Amino acid sequence: MKRLFIIKDTPANKISYYHIAFFLVALPFDRFYSELILISFLLHSLIHSNRQRFRSAFTIQNLLVSSVFFVTAIGILYSHDKAQGIKDLQRQSAIILFPFLFSVSGLDWKKYRMNFLRIFAFTCVATILYLYIDAISIILYNKLPLRVLFTQVFLNHNFSSPVNIHATYLGMYCLLSGVVFLYSFLNERSRSWRIIYLLSILILLAGLVQLASKSVLISAIAIAVFFPFFMLKGVKRVSLITGMAIIGVFITCIIINISSFRSRYVTQFKDDLVQTSINNEILEPRIVRWRLALQLISQSPLYGHGSGSEKRLLNDSYFNNKLYNSYLHELNTHNQYLSIALKTGSLGLFVFLFTLFIAFLAAFYNRDILFGSFWAIVCIVSFSENVLDVNKGIFFYAFFFSLFIQSGKPFGRLSRSNGRRESHAYPRSVNKQENAAAVRSDNYV
Fold first, then answer.
1. What is this structure's pTM?
2. Measuring CA to CA, how many Å separate 351 from each of 174, 196, 308?
3. Cα–Cα distances in Å, from 366 out to 156, 252, 360, 407?
4. What one-character-per-residue DSSP string does 16-85 give?
5. How many CB atoms lie within 10 A of CB 142?
6. With 0-12 CB in 10 A as exposed, 13-18 as middle and 19+ as buried, what is 336?
7. Residue 254 to residues 107, 172, 175, 303: CA-CA distances in angstroms?
8. Helix (H, G, I), strand (E, B), or coil: what is residue 417?
9. Predicted confidence (pLDDT) per residue in 171-225, tens digit
């Protein structure tokens, strides 16, 4: 643990490093602490910056990461809900702020990338342990049987409520952390650290099951399918696939045999995908709200209705279609793609999809499994949540997108890969050596 918090660098860079470390530690908790640390880091970076660093902030990479922010800003110009649009823009300011800070701070992001990811991952482990301790203490205080832990009382949002975070977003954090630990486990030589990483993975898996986010579970399955093919070869790949399969079967048995998990993962998932629910607990399935959102999108398919218009338009539609539960709770579309299309039309949706597509290419050409896992989590969870309308989702998207861009220089690598393909100037052995060097540098701690 010492190697995560004691570094050799200039005093200014050390302060920047600890700002980021404390930001990551605070991320799963109340946003006040994250925002306070972010403001402090901004002031520190501005004080120690220079003209050259400011110039480095104006790059295509940073523009791409910030694209959603600019789409929202343009959408305000023709919106009839400008006040709400400005609030949305303020909330999304982190999307443009992080790329700027990463460029002007002076930190070597490639050097410290794994440190930051592990600090974040250990924070998520500590958070899950705290939530389990809190739940068990409540059970013991009320003299209830321990099996109550696996009922609806301590499932999903009820489990994450002590730290005041949406279960899906904490699930996203835990899933990325689990991938970080798995990556670290496969690249670690120290036996004691491998044991620590393995125990941390098991704790995070338990937390993921308890948080019961269906979209995060689907993300985990997608990552588990592709991870072995990006990381290992031969016998090691087979061993990893076998281990993942055993864990998958074990988790499946838990979900099937415990009624509360079965209801959450299976029954409610089916109900969300039908237009009339047979489950009284879900009066208005997601697909019904999506259908209404599509009707609103069809009214202005190219430009949308403007930033900030989603809540008002959906509430009117909910009321007119007698979706009173959704109306009273002022629910959004619970789909980031439909949300962007509703507010800024097909043009805004194209910008967002193009950003995700370029990120996928960068992760694929660099064989960056961590970047690819982050990409998969964002893409899949965006089908069920408005990730970029909530503080925890915005910080997750903006920070880690910026970190992977700045630490890996993926766009420069991507352009070189394309150049090699066109010119055939280099033999395959050179490419293998470069890939091996990239992996070795990524393992630096």
1. 0.89
2. 28, 41, 18
3. 35, 33, 10, 12
4. HHHHHHHHHHHTTS-HHHHHHHHHHHHHHHHHT--HHHHHHTSSHHHHHHTHHHHHHHHHHTT-S-HHHH
5. 8
6. buried
7. 44, 21, 19, 46
8. helix
9. 999 999 999 999 999 999 899 999 999 999 999 999 999 999 999 999 999 999 8
